[in-house]
Amino acid sequence: MRSAGSLRVVISRLLGAALLVLFVSVWGIGCDSGGGNGGMAPSPVVENEIQNQQANAGDDVIEVGLEQVFSAPSGTPLTYSASSSDEGVASVAVNSATLTVTPLEGGEAEIMVTASNERGEATDAFEVQVFASPPDRP
User: Taking the model in full, what pTM does it have?
Assistant: First the structure.
């Protein structure tokens, strides 16, 4: 049988370990402003996918407002980039939060658009089908 002094040491050590676990748990929660990402802004998300597009070669450009497509749940500013699988069919450019697709010649191209912040990125992809212009007729 243990003496009262030994029992107090065991209980004291158990309480100390429990308090340490409790402190670490509470400290971890306090350092994490939600979302499990250590206080950083949440990653961007795709809110509204861009639908596939069709256009005639040489016609007006297709413009898409990217603020309607992507969001960052914390409101952290996003930067945007885009690429085309075939720049000869459809070229792309991003100015501020506007994607511009220019239909150049007949064919199909996949357009990939990415929104990013310091926490991560989100990507949306869509197809552009460009119809060749009919040849000039006399």
Answer: 0.68
